[in-house]
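Dear Dr. H.,

I hope your travels went smoothly. While you were away I took the liberty of generating a structure for the chain from your last submission, since the lab meeting agenda had it listed for discussion. I wanted you to have the full record in hand beforehand rather than looking at slides cold. The sequence, exactly as received, is reproduced here:
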Amino acid sequence: MPDSTTEDSVAVALLPSLRHATNSSSQVAIVGSNLCPVESLDYEIAENDFFKQDWRARSKTQIFQYVFMKWLLCFFVGIIVSLIGFTNNLAVENLAGVKFVVTSNMMLAGRYSMGFFVFTVTNLLLTLFASVITAFVAPAAAGSGIPEVKAYLNGVDAPEIFSLRTLLVKIIGNISAVSGSLLIGKAGPMVHTGACVASILGQGGSKRYGLTWRWLRYFNNDRDRRDLVTCGSAAGIAASFRAPVGGVLFALEEMSSWWRSALLWRIFFSTAVVAIVLRALIDVCLSGKCGLFGKGGLIVFDVYSENASYHLGDVLPVLLLGFVGGILGSIYNFLLEKVLRAYNYIYEKGVAWKIILACAISIFTSCLLFGLPFLASCQPCPADALEECPTIGRSGNFKKYQCPPGHYNDLASLIFNTNDDAIKNLFSKNTDFEFHYLSVLVFFITCFFLSILSYGIVAPAGLFVPVIVTGASYGRFVGMLLGSKNLNDGLYAVLGAASFLGGSMRMTVSLCVILLELTNNLLLLPMMMVVLLISKTVADAFNANIYNLIMKIKGFPYLHSHVEPYMRQLTVGDVVTGPLQVFKGIEKIETIVHVLKTTNHNGFPVVDGPPLAPASVLYGLILRDHILTLLKKRVFLSSPVAFDSNTLAQFKADEFAKKGSGRGDRIEDVELSEEELNMYLDLHPFSNASPYTVLETMSLAKALVLFREVGLRHILVIPKSSNRPPLVGILTRHDFMPEHILGLRPTLSRSRWKRLRIRLPFLS
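The corresponding predicted structure, in token form, is as follows:
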């Protein structure tokens, strides 16, 4: 089966299929906000003659260079991602800070209408700028980017997701959108940013910019780029929360589909570099050299350092917190999925509608953020307040807003603020009586629905921080209702954030460590573990985690670690379909060009027959890119004979290396004369002579495990009987998609197997 499509097939309407609960079985997906073709990545090493020659020719010095470059690039990933993360926070805190200070000053002067106008127009312009550059410059930068990176690490290659243009729009657009008071986060875009940085560094150099250093060319393959992208995604989380260990575990638990101990060391090295650089930069900001930055953003980490003591009687409320958090998280995922599908209807109408929707969400958000605090009653300033009350300016727990002197608006302290400062206020200690429970409830409901509405707009937008804010307000509200003597409201806010994260994102270990590093309180570990386990278990009974749902909506052919039970009933011979295109070991150029022009396959079996072999026998597999390289090289044979050593000496292994970003070679770009079309090409030295093969009687479930765990792009299916042709078909990622399988076998009842798997988890 082919694992890519032509541009013409992009016209096949994927979006209408998204209105139903289906994944895309065709190799097209929504990248950012546009419909694009996707392909699989070549993680398998093609063991042809040139690979063997290249590896044997490497000296100890070259092997040292290769290993050294791996660590050096990981170091550069850590440095660059930490600088970008710091710049993002610095920019957001200052842009949003100036906006809030100007608006607050107008309100202090009694100019409420003008304050509302400035606040709304500023947010609208920032959102408009973010949506315009995303829609017209880099549509792949829309959203958080975590589903795209996760799909890439699973073996799915989508165009432009790691380009320099996408990186720049991701950074600038996210700064602008977050500063525009949209309820979105920076963590998801930082993961995508880190992956972009890693991918660009791992391109193997660039002829355009003169970066042709031989050392860089060691990374002209998907395997090393995959490892670098994994490092980049971990560095992105580490830069977002100053959680180096949490970043490593996040990459292991959520992002990566393949893991090795050597990769663990390099990822840990990258996140350690991020932590050290951020610590140095933040020390500079604490001295007052970063404008309004310094009390929010990355300084969230030490929000609760008081020693917590709790007893057995506190366990039941925590269990309840986790149970309800799991239900709320599953509802959140359900509603977000419905909203994203509804947005797809609007996006079908054109780019203008995408921008209009973003602007409408911005205006609606500004009206809520500015208007809701007027519904809250003013609270008298506490006599033992640890900071100035009321707060004049941007940060703090005691926003004056419209209140008289000596009073503050508790809802404004939460809602008329940046997300980072809202988290700090909710998590902070000794604040049990500073927020009214109705204000916290209003804030929770507002965050819950605004974050759902804001995520799907055409702008770089994350989910991590909005989910933390929503969960923290939910936890604090529960703590205020229960009134525990041992666990104060700040601790309940932390546990609430954990329960909502577990219910929505379904991670346990990485979230636990991230929140511990964020709050700097190891004593919360037992409670947090219980909350995460319960919330994830409860939510798993209803739907999938949020990133898997988004990948399904986008149509990424993601291969999950579990096997659907109905796959055990099928063999690989039941799902492979034709037509099968095969090349002879020595093939005529005209035949090769015709096959390349009339098919979209990326791998072609090479079969030898008489006189090279007494009967038809499978020799290996050759990739489309390698054939195109051979055609462009124009080293052809006038008769069907094998290449001699002098002819092979004209080729270099670097010529067959995987291209970096940008458009690859196309058969339409190769112009051949009539004389050349009648010549021959020996494919043997360039074919992978040891491709993965399976018998046609192997179960589909077993083949899926092999395909995913090894990271394959093709599996050749061979017959069990020697009396038949040497090849039955080719398995690609497309053949494992449930929609393809159930389309071929409509008698299979997927829903019945789903119910059975819930009752009998061991089947997975």
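Two observations you may find useful: The two ends are 26 Å apart (CA to CA). The CA atoms of residues 608 and 614 lie 9 Å apart.

With kind regards,
E. W.
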